[in-house]
Design brief:
The chain has 334 residues and is α+β, with helices and mostly antiparallel strands. The protein has helices spanning 2-14, 35-38, 42-56, 59-69, 76-89, 93-102, 132-138, 184-192, 198-208, 212-221, 280-291, 298-304; strands spanning 20-25, 108-115, 121-128, 139-146, 149-157, 165-168, 172-178, 228-233, 240-245, 250-252, 262-265, 315-322, 327-332. An 8-stranded mixed β-sheet has the order 1-4-5-6-7-8-9-10. Strands 11-2-3-12-13 form a 5-stranded antiparallel β-sheet. The radius of gyration is 19 Å and the shape is globular. The protein starts with a helix and ends with a strand. The structure holds 2-acetamido-2-deoxy-beta-D-glucopyranose (4 copies). One 2-acetamido-2-deoxy-beta-D-glucopyranose binds next to helix 12 and strand 13.
Length: 334
Amino acid sequence: MRILIFSLLAVITLGDSVPLRYQVSLNEAPESRWAHVQSPYAATIKTFAQNYAKYSITPLKLDLLVTLLHRGWITPEFDRELHGMAKTVDITYKEAVFLNFMYEYNAFCTSIVVRLQNGTIIHGRNLDYDSEAFLRNTTVTIDVSKDGKLLYTSVGFAWYLGVGTGISYSGFSITQNQRDAGSKFDNFIALLLGYEGDLWAIRKVLTESKNYDDAYNYLYRAKLADATYYILGGVNADEGSVLVRSRAKTLGSPQLNDTNWYVVQTNYDPWVTDPSYDDRKTVAVQQLLKFGQENMNIDTLFEVLSVSPVLNPSTVFTTIFVPETGYHNTTIRS
Ligand SMILES: *[C@@H]1O[C@H](CO)[C@@H](O)[C@H](O)[C@H]1NC(C)=O
Ligand SMILES: *[C@@H]1O[C@H](CO)[C@@H](O)[C@H](O)[C@H]1NC(C)=O
Ligand SMILES: *[C@@H]1O[C@H](CO)[C@@H](O)[C@H](O)[C@H]1NC(C)=O
Ligand SMILES: *[C@@H]1O[C@H](CO)[C@@H](O)[C@H](O)[C@H]1NC(C)=O
């Protein structure tokens, strides 16, 4: 019996798994609304946050960063949530801020939006990141509601208050991939100008936007703390796009249409060929073409996201969304 239990556990530990799911109501006070999500992971989060802050930034620079973030990146609501998290996890407010700041700047990912022959849109993503063990351990799915109405489901981390992967029940889905552009000085200027956090902007549209167009227009114009790629899916045949964002504006926006049945975005601008040392996009496109539009569905898109190097050692999770039906499915990768 013992051997049997041990081998079952081994399978669960070594194999892919499904994240735990939590419910959060925005009617709860910001200080306490995330406590039940964070507390099961408190010890893991605390260890990571303290080591990460200690090795990544000096106390003086952290003080300056927090002051700078208060010019706009940290909204009053976010501020209260950060204070709540610091208390739940037993870390300092500044450590909570730093942890929530880091994710924005390191996520390497693949996002794909596919239009089926009947016009249904499927949106998939792999989230790739270093520190993948910590991230896999703290990956959660969160259903967010307000006034008793389910607004959106996000896939992220128990300690992260913004959203990098989410589906709105108003008919759209959004993922974010990192875009490297500009310098630390550009980030400094953007923060000084009070520009919004890139993943806070996603949370805002998932909470407030009425449809795909609303979300697209907001993310098209937002002033952002960092350059980024936003990838959107919707409910109509042409509702699939990438927004190539600099801090101040949108530089380009590939779209689905009658002939363009997929968009694939990794971490390079769409008008540039991906480099030979990181050909995730080339491989993903080959796989899509191998299946063909007529054979695409949630299972084949999952297969595309499971081929190396699209799937790679730093892939934390794979998520598939269908905005038309509200379908979402996340697999934590082993
Ligand atoms: C489109 O096709 C997919 C896959 O066959 C199916 O799951 C979906 O329900 C269809 N959508 C509509 C609107 O018929
Ligand atoms: C992840 O969780 C496992 C099992 O609970 C634990 O042994 C490991 O230390 C954790 N790793 C990190 C980086 O949190
Ligand atoms: C679809 O998009 C492609 C790529 O942007 C473009 O070349 C093509 O003209 C578009 N087709 C239609 C029918 O709009
Ligand atoms: C989620 O995706 C995995 C991987 O494709 C699949 O095995 C599983 O059946 C899916 N679950 C649901 C509820 O669709």
